[in-house]
Amino acid sequence: MDQTLANTNRPPYGILAILMIGAFISFLNNTLLNVALPSIMVDLHVDTATVQWSTTGYMLINGILIPTTAFLIQKYSVRRLFLVAMSLFTAGTIIAGMADVFGVLLAARMVQASGSAIMMPLLMNVMLVSFPVEKRGTAMGVFGLILMFAPAIGPTLSGWIIEHYDWRMLFHFITPIAALILIFGYFLLKDKKEKVEIHLDAISVILSTIGFGSLLYGFSSAGNEGWGSPFVYGTIILGAIALVFFIRRQSRLEKPMLNFNVFKYPMFSLASAITMILNMALFSGFMLLPIYAQTIRGISPMETGLMLLPGALLNAAMSPVTGRLFDKFGGRILSIIGLAITAVTTYLFSQLSFETTYLNLVVLHAVRMLGMSMVMMPVSTNGLNQLPRSYYPHGTAMNNTLNQVSAAIGTAFLITIMSIREKAYADELMRDVAGQPTADVQQQIMMEAMLGGIDDTFLVATFLTGIALILAFFIKRAKPADEPIEKKQPSKKLAKAIGD
């Protein structure tokens, strides 16, 4: 870790502030786009399964690059990594603002993601080494408050912009802010890094890229190609095989790119399982609700943003509260209550109809976000607390990798379920119509079919949340483990002498 951070007894608030602002812009960019998806579908002439790539593609690049961040954090200074990350993010934002075809928008999102992939693990690692365990929950709560303010203002801001301007203005709005943060970071970040003799294993990078990339691409392609396509299950199988070889190689390396020994610590493993399941269930809702509100109910983008605002504000406001509660009571009781709330509200979302009131949507989403705020940060922090200090870069990298992979797979999987169920409902309704249906009847059938698909998808998400709730009962308050004793590999000469 950087000497500036390792040798100080006072948390580096200046560095943390700059990193948080950078992460805030990254979060804001994501929440801005969710409400814009229906507008992008119309303007660029793409369907639901295709437009979800603007989100899934972002996660795909994150999933590929985040495994390398443990190496990057150990090798380079915070200043250097931040400047590279913000430069990539700013460049991607500029390109996205000029996109006139979906392919260009997707490429720009991937450039943005290459910067964002570095940002979050870097910030999390600085947080972990800057605060002692007994104050970490409160610190993470304040951190969550700042970052969750982005989802609070993002949908409403996005709705207002889309109603008055083209969706590309979302990126034009972010560009000067990102550029200013980059300039401030250049002049204000001054931390130093001792020269570290560590090298990135090229074979590990290749296996990681093929593994995570193929797995995410296969799941994401299922919406367009169908689960029976050889291309879909072929890439998933290829990804799984590459990941097996990647994991085996990491266990043999003296300094692995991504240290899977973090899973020897049970609370970290349990936290990873819970957050992965919850990510799969929750990320789909962030996409489905704007589609339901705007496409099925005809609610304007601005009103859609306002619909999501109370939930996002509640999530942000609860972040420091849950941080303090975590320091006092631990993560078990918080996660059980939070997951129970999330499961119930997700089930109620599976009962959406053409008559569901706007107020009902606002309240349900707000309560669902309340439940979410009681789970994510406490569970993740409790898992990371059990790791020894030297494992922090690997723990944060693993956490972020699994979050991105699970969110991408979950989004693709549930959007695919929606597409399959929507088609099944449409075929069934068409068979019940005598003769050739009129254009109005066809439109009504498609709306009913889409609503049925969305309801079924939320039902599956309820089941996933229920699994996470069961796992939450096994959470125990974690304490930092002792540093592992490094087993040095014998030199080749010594190994030969032993063999002789």
UniProtKB/TrEMBL annotation:
Intracellular or extracellular location(s): Cell membrane
Family of this protein: Belongs to the major facilitator superfamily. EmrB family.
Protein name (record): EmrB/QacA subfamily drug resistance transporter
Gene Ontology molecular functions: transmembrane transporter activity
Transmembrane stretches, start-end: 12-37, 57-74, 81-107, 113-133, 140-162, 168-188, 200-219, 231-247, 268-293, 305-326, 333-352, 358-380, 401-420, 457-475
Membrane keyword on record: yes
One of the record's GO cellular component terms: plasma membrane
Pfam family, one: MFS_1
Classification via PROSITE patterns: MFS
All residue ranges annotated as the Major facilitator superfamily (MFS) profile domain in the record: 15-480
Species lineage: Bacteria, Bacillati, Bacillota, Bacilli, Bacillales
Keywords (A to Z) from UniProt: Cell membrane, Membrane, Transmembrane, Transmembrane helix, Transport
UniProt topology in membrane: Multi-pass membrane protein
